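Let us practice reading a record.
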Amino acid sequence: MSVDGWNRILVLGGIRSGKSEYAESLVSAAPTVRYVATSPGYEDDPEWQARIETHRGRRPGSWTTEEVGTDPSQLAEVISAAKPDETLLVDDLGGWVSVLLDPVHQPADDTATVDELAAAIRGCAARLVLVAPEVGLSLVPATPVGRAFADALGSTNQAVARECDAVVLVVAGQPTWLKPAATVTTVAGATAERAPASPDGVADDQTIPSPQVLTPAAAAQRPVPATPPDDAFDSATMQLPIVETGLVIQPGMDLPMPDELAARSARDRLATLDVPGAGLGNLEQLVAFAAGTQGATIPAPWRSVRVLLLHGDHEGGVAAGALAGESARRANQARAGDGALARLAAEAGASLQVVRAPTAGPIEDGPALSVEAVEAALRYGWRLAEEAAETGVDAIVLAACGAGAEAAAAAVLAATAGAEPVRVLARVVTSGGNVDDNAWMTRCGAVRDALHRSRRDPRGPREILAELGGGDIAIATGLLLGATARRIPVLLDGPVGVAAGLVSREFAGQARHWCLLPDHGGQPGVRLASDVLGLTPLLDLRMNLGEGATALTALPLLRATLTVAAGLPEYPVLAGDADGAGSGERFSEPEPSAPGPTAVPDPTPGA
């Protein structure tokens, strides 16, 4: 499930609004679902039977179906008897009300009242999704039976909505959240509390403060603080970022794609430009990428770039060889505007945001993070992308620093792409430049143990992040999804970024099309992930200054390429100038303004 803090959700919608499909998507991640069908059947109505068969055909084989259409009182009994580990989907309350009002089933309304249903929903221990037609937007029915149905269903919807944690209205397949779920969750095993509800039924949550956005050139004048500032993920209890649209991060999300026509037109245009050689080489794909993400044949160079540095450590064998406290020092250094990443950001005119991720546990012994903390991290990353978009950022550089992050990324790569850990885990290089083979073997062993430990667990994106990935990769995944939703390109640079790219495609296949890989850095894991994601590195610099540094080094070149591609004219002949002048006039050699070398007088007398 992907809406935090809820136990009961009411999904409303009109006829053919997509409400049933949306409700089914909410429970798609549950291992088993009890589908409670309320339709009485109407065997003499072939069209109605065809609708029922369509619904049945969508249900996975692991779901069980219970028919309560002939006995309205049975619905409350089924909901009341549900166990805490169960997931129920009731579709829909319109059918239940129609049977309740049917004279054939009277006096059913004396025993299966709306109040009894509401009480059953209120006390339901299972996770419950209810679907209902929304009748409040239509005209008052012209017949007495129609008015009775609308009145009864309207009263039922209101009573059920009061008992549900969240209510969503689906219009043309698009969800609009009327009553968001409570947004308090647990991080790293801390006790969570539900936020108090306001009189209008909306939780009075306080959005956690986002990390400060720094301008490295200015921040360089400040002294390095002794300790990093407090961060929301360091607190014992945290509140999830509020997403006013009722964000649901789940597999199968329908996010935007880049404009393929603009990308193709931009690539075709490059072949017409007046250049002296063969063109831009590998950088032609940069122009096409920028054109697709901007939806313009002539893309503009990125002007407002934000670097998001994710700082999250991983405990256990994956961090073998890492110097204690080194990642925190690097993150603190970046906050102060010092160090390679901040200086490169200053040179490129990019802003910098240092994001603290929850520490991941040793994956060889147990999950890196709880599923609840993963959900929090995903939503947090999405919100960071939203905030960047709201401030006019037109490109994001994803960076990371954390003990054991490379090995955790290798574990994610092994789980998602079937790679051998020894083939994708880079050598361990100490701060003195020496190769530590013992630490490398320890990391490989930890990754293999983690893969063996979790071999029978589900391999959905949340499970992979919880078992192997940890907080930094989860935040990066949410960031990629949020950036995709807001049509912001992301420059990947290193293991954490590509690992997030692999996981994000399990949520939304469109996300990888908004990612650009400037360089593979010579890292085997990044090479393999780029092949799986279909990303071709633009450069081969082989720099090793930390994740994100190579992308910032390449950023001025990428901007210059976009500037040149936008400003060059077409080749004169293609522009309609057969004489090649480019201005409509025939080119002629200009007369010299002074005598040439042969006109110099001979200084010899008598010559």
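A brief commentary: The mean pLDDT is 80.
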